[in-house]
Every structure is written in C-alpha cells, then in structure tokens.
Amino acid sequence: MRLKEKYNKEIVPALQSQFKYANKFDIPKLTKVVINVGVGRFSKDKAYLDNVKETLLKISGQQPMMNPARKSISAFKVREGMIVGVSVTLRGQRMYDFVEKLVSISLPRIRDFRGISAKLVDNHGNMSIGLKESSCFPEIRADEIEKSHGLEICLTTTAKQREEGVALFKLMGFPFRAE
To answer: Please, how many CA atoms are within 13 Å of residue 14, restricted to the half-sphere of its CB?
Structure first.
C-alpha cells in the first residue's frame, strides 16, 4: 500500500483514537522533507559540488538548490556568497514516495543499523536523520562515487508535541529502537 493511502486509511484513525482529536485538521501530518548536504571545505571544488548535486538529483528526483553563505566568517574561511550547502525540499507525492523509499529500502541497507533513536524527534514533532553515506539509497552505486558524502534528512510535521510526532513516525513505519 502506498504511504499516502496508508496515512488516510490507517494512520489518521489510529492517531484519532490515540490522542482523541476533536477536529480532523488537528491530526498531525507530514508537510515537507528537506535533504541537505553541507559541502564544508570542498566549497571551491566544482567536481565535488557537481557530484553532490547529481547524488541529490538521483535520490530525490528533483533539481537541488545551491545554498550560498549569508555572511562572511573569517574563522571558517567562508565569504559571503560562497556555496556552503546543497539542498532539496520535497512536498506532495514526491515527499511521500521518498519517505516510503527511505523507510522500506534505504534504512535497512545501512550497515549495523539497529533502528532510529526516538531522541531524533524534537519537541515540535519534527525529525532529523543524519546519514554518514548516501550509498544506502538504491539509485547510488558505490562504484560510481568519487568522494563519499553524508546527508541530513529533516522531516517536518504539523504535530504540536513530541509524543504526537513519535506516534506519527512509528505508524508510518520508521524503525525506532527500544530504549
């Protein structure tokens, strides 16, 4: 079953019964997913930036955006306007497809994966997952990568409390470890 259908048919009634919402618009839902890669010391390396851009394009199916620095910081050797990150924001059907792929294919492919810590969910019900390698995604082949890089995935919800966010992610199929 597709994730959006599962959300409407199974997750909404389960959250409704668990938290006793008076209004259907109070039920938490996923609003956006942001995939981000900080380029750090490789900001001047055009080949590395192209590699990161190509990786994010393959993973998300959407053209990534280059993020320039807002102000200069001499301690980090960063000048205003230098590229410091590459990101993609997913909404709608692409977001649901990506989350479904993340839960069912990518996370199980991570070496020594024992589950996600519930501490990754913040007090507003949003979750940020950091991955050390992008090779866990099926679109990325290990032999094609010149330089390996990590990425950060931020899942934003309309949940108002941490417990609501954790319940939503558990019902979506995220493998939380028992703590």
So the answer is: 14
* For the chain, counts of helices (H) and of strands (E): 5, 5
Identify the CATH homologous superfamily for domain 3-172. Answer: Ribosomal protein L5 (3.30.1440.10)
Q: Please spell the DSSP secondary structure of 66-128, one letter per residue.
A: EEE-SS-BGGGTB-TT-EEEEEEEE-HHHHHHHHHHIIIIIGGGSTT---B-GGGB-TTS-EE
Would you say how long the chain is, in residues?
179
Residue type, 129: I
Q: What are the tens digits of pLDDT across the range 100-151?
A: 988 888 888 888 888 888 888 899 989 999 888 877 787 877 666 667 788 8
Q: What pTM did the predictor assign? A: 0.87
Per the structure block, which two tokens stand in for 30? 């996923």
